[in-house]
Amino acid sequence: MLNELIDKRKVVLQQSEEHKEKRNELNALASTYARERNQLNAQTRECVDEAQKNKELRDEANNSVHTLKAERNVLNDKANVLFEDIDAFKKEHGGISNNRGIKELHKQIERLEMEQQTKVFSPEKERELIEKIKQLRAGIKDQEDEIEQNKEIHAKLQEARDLRKEASDLHAKVTESAELAQKHHDLMVECYRKADKSREAADESHKKFVEAQEAADEEHNKFIACQKEIRDYDKVIGGLRKKTRKTKVTKEQKAVRKEAEQVFQQFRAGEKLTTDDILLLQRSKLL
Fold it and tell me: What are the residues whose beta carbons fall under 8 Å from the beta carbon of 172, sequence distance 6 or more?
């Protein structure tokens, strides 16, 4: 029975080592997934922060667009008032009445420039639009050249031109700010896309981390159970060994007692005892 228990203990000990080794492997794997998850989460935060920065820059550029547009519109309105006076002067003094007025031509240019800024055209359509704006500007110049010969409204025309120039400069800034706003918007969208991608990867790594950690915990519980079973075997085996040793000592003591009694009978019969015989009698407490 003792040998059978020892063999069973060896089997449980082997299982214990296997569970311990598997637990350590799974813990190492869980740590790897945790590092990956943490790195991806950090990457996600960086992308979100970068997206937020681009969002703020986009909003700043859009605010600039609104401010510049308002300033440009004020200048155009002032210029339009002057050009209305000039057109009225043309009609009154026999100007080219069949042609569209300068104010109307400017408005058409503004509309075409807005379309150029906000719509997507094919290269051919883009060239046609640019050519149309060029023709309208040429028409304005022809009319202005004709009107400029009259000194009465020369100063008014010059003021209107200056206002248009300022408005045109502001329009260029509007376009620049609008392009900048679009650039930062695109960067913001790209950053959020990257953040979503890294967040998904982080979630997957976290899922694998949890699975590995749970499996490691299960192996650890099995290892603990094996250790408890080994301790139980040790108690039983230790008890049996102690009992076996005690039984062996008792048998030896009985044999010595029996031998000592035989020597004692020889002593009582007057036979001569050896030193070993005397020691045997003393050990058996018969002498």
Answer: none
* Element at 267 (helix H, strand E): helix 154-268
Q: Give the separation between CA 107 and CA 111, rounded to whole angstroms.
A: 6
Q: Kindly give, in sequence order, each residue whose CB lies less than 8 Å from that of residue 280, ignoring residues fewer than 6 positions away.
A: 256, 259, 260, 263
Q: What is the pLDDT of residue 240?
A: 73
pLDDT of 128-187, one tens digit each?
A: 888 888 888 888 777 777 666 666 677 788 888 899 899 989 989 998 999 999 999 999
Measured between alpha carbons, how far is 33 from 24 in angstroms, rounded to an integer?
Answer: 14
Q: Which of 268, 96, 63, 276 is nearest to 180 (CA)?
A: 63
Beta-carbon contacts of residue 225 (< 8 Å; ≥ 6 apart)? none
3-state secondary structure at position 95: coil
What the block records as the tokens of 180 is 């900048």
Q: 106: buried, middle or exposed (CB in 10 Å: 19+, 13-18, 0-12)?
A: buried
Pairwise CA distance, residues 49 & 67, whole Å: 27
pTM: predicted TM-score of the whole model, two decimal places = 0.58
